[in-house]
Design brief:
Blueprint (H helix, E strand, L loop, with lengths): L12 E7 L10 H18 L1 E8 L3 E8 L5 H21 L11 E5 L5 H9 L1 H4 L14 H5 L20 H13 L5 H12 L2
Antiparallel strand pairs: 1-3, 1-4, 2-3
Helix pairs in contact: 1-2
């Protein structure tokens, strides 16, 4: 039976998640992260997709994306990215079988008011996983782009970021404060993803 076509539309925002097969690691060393991001940039350009936030965890990845010109842009990007990375991963690490667990997951963000909150959730993943105490100490996310103005060919500025201040310095300071403060509901959101999404 054919799989149901994905409903991912041009101009809409989506929280994208993908995980290693059986929760196994996707990245073992710095070169793995770098290769993945290099491929991501290639496919982002090829399929004209805006990437606003990302975080590459050890065994799963998060993105906030929007397809610019075609309804299938995000699907094509993820398909190409996972195919190329899986081939690289199996060759380099001498693995067989599936690298990624089924198809990627996608969640439509139907309110622009949630865009910054989604980015915050994505970039706080390493903190909630107790990998670091401050998101600035995790290299494989979009945090430094917003918090410190680090240049990135990969990223497009979240439209709500501009509302955080009148200057780059004000916005970056506000963003750092916005991310560093924990929220009581984060554990609930994490449990939702663990039980209903990353299953």
């Amino acid at each position: 039976m054919a799989r149901k076509a994905r409903e991912i539309y041009q101009g809409e925002y989506y929280h994208i998640l993908s995980r290693g097969n059986n929760k196994q690691a996707l990245f073992f060393e710095e070169g793995d992260f770098e290769f993945y991001l290099k491929c991501l940039l290639r496919y982002k350009r090829q399929y004209e997709v805006s990437i606003f936030h990302y975080c590459l965890m050890t065994n799963h990845v998060h993105f906030l994306m929007r397809s610019i010109r075609t309804d299938g842009g995000i699907t094509k990007l993820m398909h190409g990215l996972q195919m190329v990375y899986a081939r690289y991963f199996k060759t380099k690490h001498r693995r067989t079988g599936h690298v990624f667990e089924d198809r990627f997951k996608h969640f439509h963000i139907d309110s622009e008011a949630y865009l910054l909150e989604c980015g915050r959730y994505i970039e706080r993943n390493p903190v909630r996983a107790s990998m670091v105490q401050d998101p600035k100490d995790y290299a494989w996310s979009s945090y430094a782009f917003y918090a410190y103005g680090r240049a990135s060919e990969l990223l497009t500025v979240n439209p709500l970021f501009e509302t955080l201040g009148k200057t780059d310095e004000e916005r970056q300071q506000a963003y750092r404060e916005y991310l560093i403060t924990p929220r009581s509901y984060e554990a609930i959101v994490d449990r939702f993803f663990e039980e209903r999404v990353l299953v």
